[in-house]
Amino acid sequence: MSTDRVGASPNRVGGVGRVTGAQRYAADIKLADALQVKLVCLPVARGRIVSIDSSAALAVPGVRFVMTAADLPQPVPRFGPQFTDRPVMAVGETKYHGEPVAAVAAETKDAAEEGARLVRVDYEALRPIVTLADALAPGADLVQDASIRPRDPLAGTNVLREHRFGWGDVDATPADLVVENSYTFPIVTHFAIEPHVFMAAPDGDGIAVWSSIQHPYWLQRILAGVLDLPLSRVRVFAPDPGGGFGGKQHAKYEPLVAFLALLTGRPCRLVLSLEQTFQAVRRTCTEVHVRTGLMSDGTLAFVDVKADYNIGAYADIADRVVGKGSYPAAGPYRVPAVRIVSRSVLSHTTPATAMRGFGNPQVNWAVESNLDEGARALGIDRRDIRLRNVARTGDTLNPVDTRCDGEWDQAVRRAAEMIGWDTPAPPGHGRGIALGFKSGPTTGLSQSTVRLLSDGSALVYAGTSDMGQGARTVWAQIVATELGVPLERITTVSGDTAVVPYDQQTSASRSTVLMGNAVLRACQDVQAKVRAMAARLHGVPEEQITVERGIVRLPDREVAIVDVVKPGLGRMAGEIVGNGMARKDAEPDHPLQGSAAFFEFNCTAVEATVDEETGDITLHKYATVSDVGKAINPLQVRMQDEGAAIQGLGHTLMEHYIYDDEGRIRNLGAIDYRIPTSMDLPLELHSDVIENADGPGPYGAKGMSEGALISAAAAVAGAVRDATGIVIRDLPLSPERVWRALQERSAR
Amino acid sequence: MSAMAELFPIELTVNGRRRSLEVAVHHSLLDVLRDDLELTGTKECCLVGECGACTVAMNGQIVDSCLVLAVEADGAEITTVEGLAAGGRLSPLQQAFLDTGAVQCGFCTPGQLVAAADLLARNPRPSVPEIEEGLAGNLCRCGCYVQITEAVLAAAREADR
Amino acid sequence: MHTFAYARPATLAEAVALLAEHGAAARVLAGGTDLIIRLRDGTLVPDVVIDLKRIASLRPGVREEAGLVVIGATTVMTDVAADPLVRRHFPALADAAAVVGSVQIRNRATLGGNICNASPAADTAPPLLVYDATVVAEGPGGTRRIAVDDFFVRSGVTTLAGDEIVTAIELPLPALRMGAAHERRTRRRGHDLASVTLCCGVREDGVTRLSYGSVGPRPVLRVDETGILADPAAPAEARTNILEQLLADASPSPRSMRASPAYRLAMLRVLGRRALATALERLEARA
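^ Those are the sequences you sent over. The predicted structure of the assembly is below.
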């Protein structure tokens, strides 16, 4: 098989730039004559701004402008992907530690920094709401003024929205055993190694913006709205992000920098520090209460979930995270009755946003752990209880949603087998198993253009952000397969809204399916034109010609596409342009406004030991198996799956924000917010895939890359429970927390 | 104290090329590489010596260039990621990173490569634990650690042939 | 980062004179792995930074002289950990130096900087205390030798005078055989600041020296001269009692976010037992 085509693992497109340092990330782009920007923040989360004095800052040589909310249109524009609640900069009161109250633009970074230090802000510190309990307490201060959510009956509370999902009658469904517990999931952050970068420059009558953004077209719409410009006057450059994980999906300080650029008439550049990035993006933290009803044979009778998510000061996309993350809470199982009540709760903390797994890891951790307890109480093997309940192809899950679209039991059996589930564990070793499950995209629109040039080389335009998943490699492989163009003659183009057709977003593991189909259809459009060209060239009726996989089949022979195109285009050259689109429309009556395009399914199985003296967990074997439909690039699939597992081990074992009473993150930055290093891995980590070509994407592909993260925590906690008997219902499973639980066990 | 920086003349050799420049004494080697010399392959992330994205070799020893003042590098020989591909050809280590899938977003890759090249120079046949310990100062949030280790092993085998 | 003046003295005398001139407004730069972080975050705003690395007489390195092993203050952790003299005579110090930060950090962080910083969590402090090290300081009045146990005061504070510079750390070559081990506790397996760092040394004459840090304002040294800890055949209860006495000076801060006092105190005991066992094994192996 050709090493270029679908099913092979060629070196990734853009790889050479990444190993030579030539790849230009946003911060590597130098704009001539740019002003450097530093933000001014209060030393508290919640402060009433009394006055801002910029005079000392403006006296610093090189400082050109100090922007405050007073310099912006009044009322200060607000924006957000779901609610238009986030102001360009703080208005009247800061809502989280790190929210900008002023921005200094200067000729040099040093001058901007010095100026930012000298902006004097008088403020009155107010008591912040940090925890869910604070936010939900009767009479709690409101994080958001009720006036920004007119006609909302919940506007007088800190509950932004309440979501109710389910089917059947939980209260009327009998069960032999009901297991009821509460679980918590901490605040964690994306910690992309590339901190966020925002630049803007006046561009004729409009504006050009550079951002390390995952959704450039959504950003374009946000900017057009805030700046009152037509989309055609807002050009977004989106260099490949240096890691996104959801944190770079939506606009943050791009509007602020855009206003600075327009007010100064100069390019402006803001590079956040890692600390500021921590203050800008994080995952929702969650308290989940689960009741799992089981029959004595292990059959699920009902699942009843209440989940409160702390989403921070502004909604960003977090309320969607709450809805879409809690919606599949019953898991990949056949369950007769399900009730899910989830709430997005505001607080004076960093606005939460999308993060790999999109609200599912929080609930999955609780529901899968609770199922383990049910299995133990019933004396049923924890793999077998999952096999008993997991849906088979075509089974109904949620009655109003897509049916089971994979042979999921194969993944469960495979992961269990990979750690030797049926063999006795060595003394002191414990095993855990958990299923990760998530609805794929509910709506989507991706457009692509493929240009087959006169020398047989090709350009493919696709607006997906390639942030590590290797999207461009997939597009190139599809073009190589369909048009027979070698990879080294294919150029992929992305990252410029003025040049590349629309793509709704890079999220929800959608791109291989949605953009993949758009690219495939663009190739098919090219093939149709090649077919017409071949008919003309060879004087054969079109009906007698087929074009596929790079080959033109004439009645009497086969020729390569390029051998039709070269003579067909002739001396004036030119090119063949194909367009493709993949669209999944909203369904207004659906609880999520759209059914799942596919489900992401994963099974993680773990074998662990615990140092009873210290609480250290050692993961001896770690297997992750995802149902991917078809691995277009098997190596990239493996990288995504194992990478997701390792990221999942972060929130499982060590990651969490620690807040002080003023609402400030105490462990701000890389010294005290710990993420896994190369020394924190399982001793053996293996991944595998289930491929039955049963997905809606090209060649039967499904989306993947989040599932392995979703199931990590419950699998590891299950192994710890198995090894030691301790049950921990709060993450992370830090050595100290495990040790405490061991102490309590001994005291009993 | 004013923002007027004290300037200090330094000479250093970067990827084999001698450079003379005046640097602000409070600027780090990372600042000078990226802003003054426009060698942007070396990345900025944590600025506290935890992540390793800014790793360069200085006089044959890898350092976090965010924790070295540029003035301290006066007279030093610096190798950055841009210096790894001799004559424009990828080194076996760089090629191994591509072949094993050790590069996802790529932002940590320059630091990983400089650190891995140093590791192999000190220890041409490293064990897996030695690689994991040797590269623990380079965080990869995409979680490519297993593939990075495979790449280092592959490059070591290649050098043995 | 705030601006400052940069001084690169060529001699120790020049450096000492600069320190005397600028007093508290001066900061000494050795490896910079702590200093530059604090210059950048604004917790330190010196007028002048004095770089010691061009002083000929402070050339880094380890040498043996007159019954001592002398480690230059600017010797980096990588070189301390790899040095044959250190590894032979003071293996627990080599072990401790080998776990300070990442390779990149160990290539810059100096032994002198590690102790002058006086972090209670400094990993080299417990072995230096166990091995009875002496800090050599140079000031306007000449050379002063300070027992390392008299050097640490509390976090960030030492008995070094404002115009003195640490030039070397001296370790007496052991007259008696000793087995020693360093242990630490961190939040992950990869590099991290220690939430407990501990060193135990057992001498062939039955004396046990136990030192621990990150559980109080400064690293602590306690010595057992009863011979009970060093005697594996002694009753377990007696050994536990002695160990408890030696560990009684721990007073971890409740404000730390790295570990709670209860966990630190418990781990101190775990690490104490483990280090003692390893130290005894090593003593045996040296016989």
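The interface with chain B takes residues 1-6, 8, 29, 32-33, 36-37, 39-40, 45, 47, 49, 51, 53, 78, 101-105, 107-108, 190-191 of chain C (CB under 8 Å). The mean pLDDT of chain C is 97.

Shout if you want it in another format.
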